[in-house]
Structure formats: structure tokens, C-alpha cells
Amino acid sequence: AAAGLSYVGGYVINTYKSYDNFLQDKYALLPAVIIICVAVVMFIIGLVGCCATFRESRVGLRLFLAIILVIFIAEVSAFVLGFVYREKVKTDVQSTMRSVFDKYDGKNSESTVVDYLQEQLRCCGVKNYSDWTTTMWFNATGNNSVPLSCCRQEMKNCTGQLDQPQEL
To answer: Could you read off the pLDDT of 93-104 as tens digits, one per residue?
Structure first.
């Protein structure tokens, strides 16, 4: 389990590099760091439990039980806090994404990240394609279209025009 969590934490940190323009807050990596720390702690606790069982130590087994109970309480607390603050996190991510979308010009590094994100997640805009109508890029181009990264991958002749929403 510890190895699996370590892999997940490392994967999240590695994936963060692709989306760091959207997650400008330095605390965005905090969950991944916590996952890796939990993996290390799980490994140590597992080692204590195995050694206590192997040596048939009552003190070691009681220590193991106490640690497991503390971890269970921490997990319940983390779940409750995650549930309570989920809307705040959602709002913060959406506002950061909107600010990155506002900087879109089709040429800068933020634009490349926006295009990559839309292609990988198969989405368009923060909530939907209409989010593009409020950006400076949309108003500057004046062609009533969204970036081509909004087009469905199976649509070969998509132009990004808003009058053809079925292609977005």
C-alpha cells in the first residue's frame, strides 16, 4: 500500500508540471506531498506491526493498535475537512483558470497550456464553450469562434465557430 501511495504522489507531482499555470497556488502540491508522507508513515507502521507480530510483543502490538486508531481518526478528519471545503477549492480553481483563459492569445505559454488542457480533458472553457465569449482573445479576433483545441477530436473540419456547437 505504501508503494502504491508513493507512486500516486509521484505521479501527481509529475502531472502538476503540465498544469502548473492553472494551479498557481503553491499549496496545490500539498495533497501529493501529504500522500508521499502518508506512504512513508505507512511503511514505518507496517514495519512496526510486522516486527511486533514476529516477536509476539504485547507492547509493540498495543503501540501498533494505538497508531492505527490515530490514523483512522486523522482519515475521518481529513474526509470531513475535504467535504466542508470542497466548494472553496472549486471556486479557487475556477477563478485561477479564468485568469489563465483571459491571458490566452494563441501564442504565449499560457495559451499552449490551455490548448493542451482542453485537448487532454476534451473540454472547452472553464465550464463550457460560452466562457470564451468573455475573453480578450475572443473579442480581439472578432471571428465568433473558440480555439481549435475546443474541437472534438473526431471532427476533422472543425473551425471552432460558435454557430456549430455540436463540433465543440
So the answer is: 788 788 888 888
